[in-house]
Design goal:
By secondary structure, the protein is an alpha/beta fold. The chain has 2 domains: 7-81 and 188-379, TIM Barrel, CATH 3.20.20; 87-183. The chain has 15 helices and 10 strands. The chain has helices spanning 7-10, 25-28, 45-65, 81-104, 119-128, 134-143, 154-159, 167-170, 190-213, 227-241, 259-273, 287-297, 307-328, 340-353, 372-379, and strands at residues 70-73, 117-118, 151-152, 172-175, 180-183, 216-219, 248-253, 277-282, 331-336, 362-365. The protein has a 6-stranded parallel β-sheet. The chain has a two-stranded antiparallel ribbon with strand order 2-3. α14 links the parallel β9 (331-336) and β10. α3 (45-65) packs parallel to α9, α5 (119-128) packs across α6 and α13 packs parallel to α14 (340-353). It is globular. Belongs to the proline oxidase family. It holds the Pfam family Pro_dh.
Length: 380
């Protein structure tokens, strides 16, 4: 549990953290009664280096055994989970703040990509809330070449909190529950700052090796309270390494209510910046734990209410990516599913959209021996 708690929280002051992104004792220890993926604990930085070496050997093995091979990694093995919890909370608060602003500008019912904030009104609102003076916020938008069109969408908004700008250190955002401004990020100690940098360095080493060896690196999805950070860090790797082809693959869990929004926003970013979008689509592996945790701790269940809704979400996300492949040939998808209907749906849509298997834009992933009646006919 200590590895999920920041120094600032140990001194007291973790109370204003969001419930979902705090470490909770009952859910920290998962050695017994676990029927889904087992959780290993952060021991120290040396252990993370060992995990990185293991991943490097996996990449080498994949490269030696097949052309265009895949290797999968888990980010929680590469650093202290506390950083992922904190960073996830920052990203979620920041996005929620954008939605609040959009609602105030009368755009509540729109899809996430249709929401465009008028820069003038946004700057006024930030000044009225006491978050930033007009001069300060003007500097953000001009400094990042944003708001040229006079509007700011979610992608512009997200880029403000990029590693290039140290905004998260300075920024206060409103907490609706308590009606007060709170800092986005609790202060990091020097050691915590280093742990964060080391995690990013390990990711970098793995991405470079994968690119050298021609192996596609899939970053696994994990629990919803780690996932915003994992996705964001993977996106940063995609921006750097997917210039010519898809080397880095992000994973989207379609049992999450926000899956479609996440897919569409990231595809749009890849279009704007001109890199290759790589994704693995899964239904999701942590449902029971996620639901139990949300119910016990008291935050909204992040999972779709029914299996049918998850199926619908999977096919909706998949169809969106297949359409993108048809239009730009710059997207790649791994359909990671043991569901016969999903596999048939994919094959039908590939034929309708003129996507040939030889293009290697669509791959399928199944666990060895789990659904041979699907895997073998598919292989043929």
């Amino acid at each position: 549990l200590r590895s999920c708690t920041s120094a600032a929280e140990k001194m007291g002051g973790g109370e204003q953290r969001e419930k979902q992104y705090r470490a909770h004792r009952g859910f920290g220890d998962r050695r017994s009664g676990v029927i889904s993926a087992r959780t290993y604990f952060y021991a120290d930085e040396a252990k993370c280096d060992q995990h990185m070496e293991t991943f490097l050997r996996c990449i080498d093995a994949s490269s030696g055994s097949s052309e265009d091979g895949f290797s999968a990694i888990k980010l929680t093995a590469l650093g202290r989970p506390q950083f992922l919890l904190l960073f996830s909370e920052v990203l979620v608060k920041w996005r929620r703040f954008f939605h609040q602003m959009a609602a105030e500008q009368g755009q509540a019912g729109r899809t996430v990509l249709e929401m465009k904030l008028e820069a003038e009104k946004l700057q006024e609102a930030l000044a009225n809330l006491g978050i930033a003076t007009k001069a300060e916020s003007q500097h953000w938008f001009t400094g990042e070449n944003l708001g040229v069109s006079g509007t700011v969408d979610l992608l512009d908004w997200n880029s403000l909190i990029d590693s290039r700008t140290k905004l998260s250190k300075l920024l206060l955002v409103p907490n609706v529950q308590v009606g007060q401004l709170e800092p986005l990020l609790s202060r990091f100690t020097e050691e915590e700052d280093l742990q964060m940098k080391r995690m990013l360095q390990r990711m970098d080493v793995l991405a470079k090796r994968a690119a050298e060896k021609g192996v596609r690196l899939m970053v696994d999805a994990e629990q919803s309270y780690f996932q915003p950070a994992i996705s964001r860090l993977t996106l940063e790797m995609q921006r750097r390494f997917n210039r010519d082809r898809a080397i880095i693959f992000n994973t989207y869990q379609c049992y999450l209510k926000e899956a479609y929004d996440n897919v569409t926003v990231d595809v749009e970013l890849s279009r704007r910046e001109g890199w290759h979008f790589g994704t693995k689509l899964v239904r999701g592996a942590y449902m029971e734990q996620e639901r139990e945790r949300a119910a016990q701790i008291g935050y909204e269940d992040p999972i779709n209410p029914t299996y049918e809704k998850t199926n619908e979400m999977y096919h909706r996300c998949l169809d969106y990516i297949l359409e993108e492949i048809k239009h730009s040939r710059k997207a790649n998808v791994m359909v990671a599913s043991h569901n016969e209907d999903t596999v048939k749906f994919t094959l039908r849509r590939m034929m309708e959209l003129g996507i040939h298997p030889s293009e290697k834009k669509v791959c399928f992933g199944q666990l060895l021996g789990m659904c041979d009646q699907i895997t073998f006919p598919l292989g043929e």
